[in-house]
């Protein structure tokens, strides 16, 4: 994909300088939390899904403790950092698209902030760890990412390419859109009243909708006159990324049996299908994964 000359977002915080990083990571053993629970939470992050901090809170029987971010103004990324500039350009593109879509529906879009961190970082949802992968925290309305995750995508998940990286950001922004629309909180209220299998099914629907919203962003961004340009192979990159992070693919890669009732993010085919729905239609109502239809 070509982002040459595109605007950059002013909502990027570069916290890679050490403030908030380092110790104080996830505690093992507190509240009955074991190594197995940590692994479950980290796997959730590896597949771009629900905030692993939230998963840990559920496993412990309570919410994760909020953490205090460093005080003072957030620095912007340095001008020569090409990776940070790319992320900032993608974020700006999502801001433009979702602002237009919200205005068209009579609403106001409040853009999230995106925090670049290294290692670990305090958030309103608990301490974020690089091993979790990118995640969105509704408590402070911020997207968090350690850019080393892009190397993981290429080397371990088999999902290289600029558009695959853009898809990651657009998916997390999709979770922010869900938060603004009240969908995330509505699902969270339901979790305590349903079985574990039903909780998993609700998580799948949230994740597939975020994939669809990522497709909606790509659709409308391409239609804007000043939008970035897709190149040959870009769509295939995003579809490949979506397929590589399906629950069935990840369970198979881990050497275990594929168990659909344990899925929390959807199968590879489902993730590809819902991203394509958003990409082809550009329709927010068309991303309704909660209408009772088969996924």
Provide a brief overview of the structure.
The chain is 47% helix and 7% strand. By secondary structure, it is α/β, with parallel strands linked by helices. This is YpfJ protein, zinc metalloprotease superfamily.
Outline the biggest β-sheet. 4 strands, mixed
What's the number of structural domains?
1
How many helices does DSSP assign? 10
Radius of gyration: 18 Å
Ranges with pLDDT <50 over ≥5 residues? 19-42, 44-64, 246-251
Shape: globular
Mean pLDDT: 75
How would you explain this protein's 3D organization?
It is a single chain. The protein is built from ten helices and six strands. The protein is of the alpha/beta class. The protein has one domain. A four-stranded mixed beta sheet has the order 1-2-6-5, covered by helices on one side. A hairpin with a 2-residue loop joins β3 and β4. The two termini are 29 Å apart. About 17% of the residues have low confidence.
